[in-house]
Each structure stands twice: as structure tokens, then as C-alpha cells.
């Protein structure tokens, strides 16, 4: 059984300077209450691994604007001028990774693999300094596995075993990150009693989830 | 008809019934408005859905149902949602019949640059490198020139998106097919001459023997 923790406790489990995977795509499927708590705690020096930095004031964009982030490993920052401004000012380092490669590097880390071979990036800046392997007469780029200290996820439904089910396009990187970090905290929209989620409806097995964020309190 | 509509309606003629298609953000998105009658395509959005539809009426949006630009969409009957690894397995694994992307430059070899302008604009590649490397057909939909400057150039001055040759370039002036021998001018837009296209193109063009008028959806 997993116990549910409050946002401040969750944020306290994320040390300054940690590498932190954050689920979401333009803020959709991001753990918004944990992000707010990280901003409130004044987290510093984080390496954020995520698809994007959303927009100012949205999702990961809040971490950027609050100065929590030292490095971002993402596929694009085009929708967040604040990230670009801080990158140019030298306050944030940005590693740009092709989106499919980012997904596979994270999946590889969670699956116990050293990395993946991909055609993506061959003949581009992305290939600089990387090993190229010839397989079946074709060149592939070696892209190493990418794990993290902490993963912060969002889900639609959890049960107290930690089993997670995601909603529509809010799934994105969440199930990949659930497997790829030493400490995994999930923020579900709702938590149901064990047994309510049918086994076939579970997307991420609860054994990989360490903590659930408590339900939103009403009133 | 404005030039964006012209490009979108010509690209729509490339859609093949019963196939998976990915449309990039911006101009390529317009292609969905001109799917020819009798053609049914499955549109993928790389954030994790096949079968999304038009934005729902105000107040009926679902915060968990968006396109790759973060805008609200709907789900059509038969739609399916999946994670980012599956989404890009579809893209790279030979399952995606066609992607339509915008472009900053295309060179004489048919190589595309569309993800950064060094020192000026560094938005990141998002899914573009995977799409260009992985889709079975890559169609570039773009204006032929930018402020009078040719975008179809002899050599790229911008970093390439992929080493791979794109399949087709559709602009407001012409349809051009990159081949082993070079860029072949196949079609001209209404009211545009071959000479107009050659003048607006920096890369050498091979003019097909039977240059046709663009057919629009």
C-alpha cells in the first residue's frame, strides 16, 4: 500500500540540484500541484528532463520563471520565451534532444538498456560527438539511456497500490518516466480503493511508484 | 484564395486513403480542412493520439485532450491514445505514410532545414527530426520565398533537420520533386510560369517535359 503525501512533503523529497523528470506535453499531463509546491519551497539548481518547458506561467514554465532550473533536457523551448531569455543570459543550460529520441532514451533507462540506435539525427548537429554504428548496412546513431534521481508524474486515476491509469494525451512521457527514476511520485486526479481499477485498465504497475500525492481537499 | 490555402489544397491531393498522416504545426495543419471526398485518413498528433478532430465548442474542452501545439481538440470515434514511445515508434517504424512539415530552406539535394536559425531562433527540433527521418513520405509545405529571398537554395545555410532527402516540396508557386538527378519542377501554380519559378529558386531546377498546372483539392 502507498500512503498519500501532501504537496509540500512531495516537494521536500526533491533535493536542490537533483535531476528531475517531469511528465507532460505543453503542460498537459504535468503534476501541477507538485510543481507549485517546488516553486513555493524555492527549489534551486534542478536539471529538468521533460518534453518541453510549456509556456510562462504554465506547468514546467513556472519552474523556469521561478529560477528553480539550472539545466533543461528537452525537445523544444520554442513556446517559452522565458526559457530562451535565460538560456541566452547563461542562467539555464539547454540540451535539445529530438522528441522520439528523448522518449526512447528514457524508456531505455527504465528498461535496463544502455541506450538505443536511431536514424534520427544522423547528418545533423545532434550527431556531434556521438558514436555511429553500422547495422544491416545502414548507419545508426548511438543514443545513451537517460535516467533521473526523481520522476514527477501526473495520472488520471491511481489506487492505493500505486497503480496508475492516464487520460488521453495527458499520458505522453509519464509511463516512460515512471520506470526511469530512483524516486517516483505520482499526482493523480483521483485515488480509488484497491480493486476498483481493473487489471487491464492499469497503464503503470504500482510497484514502481513510491508516493502518491494526496487528493485535492475541498473546502 | 490566399497562398496558404493554395498550398494546403495542393498538399491535400497527396493524401492516400486509409493511411496514417502527421501534420506539423502552422500551415500544414490547414491540410486537414481539404481532405478530398472519398479519402479517409488517420491523423496522428505526436503528443499521443490518432483520430483527433476539430476543437470542441467552448466550455466542452477536456484538459487531457490536446494537439501537439497544446490546443484543445476532440476525439473522433475510433480514436486511440498512447504514450510518447509508441507515438514515435509509429513515426520511425515505417507506420506513418506521410508527414507534412513547414520549411525554412530546402537544398538542391532535397535536404530540409526547419528547426533553428543559429544565433537568432533556437526553438528546438521537437518531433521534426524523427518525422523527417522516419515517415515513409516527407512533404514540405512552405512559401517559395521569404521576403523575396529564395528558400529553395543550392546549399543550406541553416542546420539540416535530417540527412534524408524529402519526397516533395509544395509552395505557392510550384510542386518540386527532389530526385537522384536533382530538383525536378513538376507543376506550376495558377498564373505562374516556369520562368517565374526558376527566377524565384536559387537551386538549379530540372524542368520536367510535361510541367502541369497544379490540381487542387
Greatest interface: A-B, 49 and 41 residues
Output the structural class of chain B: alpha/beta
Write down the overall mean pLDDT of chain A: 97
Instruction: Decide which structural class fits the backbone of chain A.
Output: alpha/beta
CATH class of chain B: Alpha Beta
Uncertain regions spanning at least 5 consecutive residues of chain A? none
Tell me the radius of gyration of chain A: 18 Å
Mean pLDDT of chain B: 96
Short description:
The complex is a heterodimer of chains A (219) and B (217). With 219 residues, chain A is of the alpha/beta class. In chain A, 21% of the residues lie in helices and 29% in strands.
What does this structure look like?
The complex is a heterodimer of chains A (219) and B (217). Chain A is of the alpha/beta class and 219 residues long. Chain A has a single domain (4-100, 146-213), classed as Glutaconate Coenzyme A-transferase (3-Layer(aba) Sandwich). Helices cover 21% and strands 29% of the residues of chain A. In chain A, the strands form two sheets. In chain A, strands 1, 2, 3, 4, 5, 9, 10, 11 and 12 form a nine-stranded mixed sheet that branches. In chain A, strands 6-8-7 form a three-stranded antiparallel sheet. In chain A, strand 2, helix 2 (32-41) and strand 3 (46-49) form a beta-alpha-beta unit. The longest helix of chain A has 12 residues, at 99-110. Chain A is globular, with a radius of gyration of 18 Å. Chain B has 217 residues and is an alpha/beta fold. Chain B contains four helices and 14 strands. Chain B has helices at residues 3-12, 84-92, 128-134, 194-199, and strands at 20-23, 42-45, 49-53, 74-81, 98-101, 105-106, 112-113, 137-141, 145-146, 149-150, 168-170, 174-179, 182-188, 205-213. Chain A binds chain B through residues 25-29, 51-52, 54-55, 74-79, 84, 87, 94, 96, 98-104, 107, 118-126, 156, 166-176, 203, and chain B through 45-49, 62-70, 75, 81-85, 87-88, 91-92, 122-130, 133-134, 159-164.
